Amino acid sequence: MVPKKVFFTKGVGVHKEKLASFELAMRAAGVAQCNLVLVSSIYPPGCKIISKEEGLKLLQPGEIVFAVYDRESNNEPNRLVAASIGVAIPAEPSMHGYLSEHHSFGETDEKAGEYAEDLAASMLATTLAIEFDPELDWDEREHLFKMSGKIVRTSNITQSAVGNKDGLWTTVFAAVVFINDDNLSVETGQSQGDAACSNENLNQDEVSRQVPEAREPPPRRPEESFKQSDEKAGPQLTATHDQQEVKKALFRVAQQKVAASPGEKDTPTAAEDRVFKTGHSRLLKPL
Q1: Dihedral class, residue 44 (left if φ above 0, else alpha if ψ from -120 to 50, else beta)
Q2: What share of the chain is helix, strand, coil (3-state, %, to 5)?
Q3: pLDDT (tens digit, 9 = 90+) per residue, 211-251?
Q4: Which of 26, 234, 241, 242 is deepest in the core (most CB within 10 A)?
């Protein structure tokens, strides 16, 4: 699990209880609803820095969140206290950077921040084999680090505060909060899946409204079935049936004529002529 996004935040809280003042400081930073897990000071390769507002939208209440943070508390009136996180990022995207934690009393934001930034840059410089004199001032070493071309950026986030005049606990808090991009991918997949299901249901509803429900035709009575069959058969079947009946009648008439008067010159062809002269609508009765 390698975080892909990170954001910086800070806050201060004041309360009569030390723990409550720490809670208020995290509320001011916007991360009180999460379970923070303090991790060591490695800045992941290629990790993108996003704004605090964007980062807070990606957190969920009760989520276990990894962070590099520092805090300091004080109940002495008017005493200056500070907490700072420094960061140093290498020029090579595949290389990791460094984060540093620093807290102090009596230091301003600028001084405490520079110390934390110097600490992170020095740790990265030793990893990148950059030669430098640790006795030099931070401004000189910062210029040396950036001139080497191996360190692209150094920065810090610092929170300082003056102790409450009534002796209440004053806690300062500074943090770099990691966001796991894998969790974001899962959430995005679920949202897309829900949207796809919703679209599918909508499409089904539209289809059901557009296509009328199929209904089975009522059962037919036998006589209706025969009637419809005859109608579908058409006039060709009716004419064929009549012709067959006519031929049968002609055959019977011819047999009777031959049996009654063998000498009469009446042929089946002549009988057929007489029958067809009467029309196709009547059938001859047997004699």
Answers
A1: beta
A2: 45, 25, 30
A3: 444 455 555 554 444 445 444 444 444 445 556 666 676 66
A4: 26
225-243 as b/e: b if 16+ CB within 10 A: eeeeeeeeeeeeeeeeeee
Query: pLDDT tens digit string along 114-172?
Result: 999 999 999 999 888 888 777 777 777 777 787 788 888 899 999 999 999 999 999 99
**Can you name the residues that pair with 123 across neighbouring β-strands?**
none
Query: Chain centroid to CA 66: how far?
Result: 25
Look at strands 35-38 and 64-74 and give their pairing. parallel
Tell me the C-alpha distance between 170 and 24, whole Å.
10
Helices (H), 100-234: 109-127, 138-147, 181-210, 222-233
Entry pTM = 0.62
Sign of the dihedral defined by the CA atoms of residues 127, 132, 137, 142, in that order: negative
